Amino acid sequence: MAVDGSLVGRAFPPTRPYRVTDEKVREFAAATGVGWESGDPVPATFPIVLAFDAMNAFLDDVQVELSRIVHGEQKFSYARPIAPGDVLVATLSVASLRQIGGNDIIGTVSEITDESGAVVCTTSATLVHRAAEVA
Amino acid sequence: MALEAGAELAPKTYPVTRASLVRYAGASGDFNPIHWSDRIATAVGLPGVIAHGMFTMALVARAVSEWTDGAEVVDFGAKFTNPVLVPDDDEGTSVTISGTVKSVEDGLATIALTVLSGDQKVLGMPKVSVRV
Lengths: 135, 132
Description:
heterodimer; A: alpha+beta; Thiol Ester Dehydrase, Chain A; B: alpha+beta; 6-stranded antiparallel β-sheet; 3 helices; 6 strands; 39% strand
């Protein structure tokens, strides 16, 4: 089932506020083999924790199964480093939608903002929604 | 390591096993079953369980942090051009990340990367800019 083209330009509600903690950052770093100590820089891809949460809500909304999604591209642009203590939300909008070979190619942009509303990181993702095989 | 234009950054190789994927799923919140279930991965047309693209990117970020002694990342992006297939055995697979400093200007070093699993490039145009 193709994703509805009228989604382009639509912004989804912000995710629940997420408090960045030492423990969560340590767990994330450890998953990539890095021993993280309080005060070390937060791993660069950590904002995906928020962006993924926003993407899940988006996929639920458009009734797309996560297992049919393959990641095509990801970009991060950071206004400032994330630090433990930050309380962040991600707001996802659909930037583009096209179809190639029966697959939907969905371009999303998630803005990650802090409690003051300032943008901390902007991250864009290309999601490939794989078509079901024709039996 | 001094970041000067043209500098080659020593390749880093990191293991990727099924256990790595389970751990990364838990830490990141990405529970897409194509990263842990062969049954579901093959049902959607993949050859088998593949690594999260974001896990590969996280390993690239680790390499960059090791090369630059934790420099602040300002921009980071990649396309996921080939999946990293992770067999269900004790060894799994690995990814190898190498980099070349393309430019150092206006306080930013831009590094072009090559990311391989086996002899196959798995990321397209991976690039990172760090503050120097």
